[in-house]
Structures are given as C-alpha cells and as structure tokens.
Hints:
Layout (H helix, E strand, L loop, with lengths): L1 H6 L2 H5 L5 H25 L5 H22 L6 H30 L4 E3 L5 E3 L3
Antiparallel strand pairs: 1-2
Helix pairs in contact: 3-4, 3-5, 4-5
Amino acid sequence: MTEIAATFSIPEFLYEEGSFGVFVLVTLILGGGAATLAGRAIAGTWRPWWQVVAYGFVLGGAVRFIHFSLYGGTFLSAHYYFVDAIFCILFGFLGFRAARASQMITQYRWLNESEGPMRWRRKVA
C-alpha cells in the first residue's frame, strides 16, 4: 500500500507537460472558458443538462488537440483525455447552472426568487 502511495503523484495524474502553467492555460482557461460558454448556451436554449456532458467530451478532444499541437503532448491518451473532459464537464455544469438560475429568476419572477448565484427557490406566499 505504501509503494502505491509513494509512486502516485497528483501533478503527473493531471498533466503530462513539464509546466503547470500550460495545464492552467489550456485546460482550465481555454477549455474551461469554452465549456462555461457552452453550458450557458445549452441552458439559454432550454436544452437538458445531459447535453453538457456530450459537449464536454467534444471539448475534451479539442483541449487534447491543443496540448498535442502546441505543446507536444500525447494526442491519443485516454487518461489525459478524460482528465481534460472532466474539467470541461465541470466548468460546463457551472455555466449551465448559473444561466438556468438566471433564467428561472428573470423569466418566472412571480414564482421564483434568487437564493444565490446558482440557485433559486419558490417565493413564499
């Protein structure tokens, strides 16, 4: 058990490049920003939440391609693809939830009220 713990490294699990800055720039800023906008667009057109997952996997492939083409990362790596896709899905859900909460508050003002940036609740009579 201690051999596994001694060989496991979170930085090596998350990114393969030599720089954490590349991971932050490509996966978090570019991929996460695109996923947030995709989540907002999905909510804005009243489509269901599960489409965020589908778009997150597509954006995960795009992020993996950027790692490959600009920074010499491995393109066909299931491990790093899933890491990129998971971050895209998480950021997509954040954008989806924020946009859906805004929709429910502004379009159903007589029925709902804000309970934070990503939540709403029914108004008390």
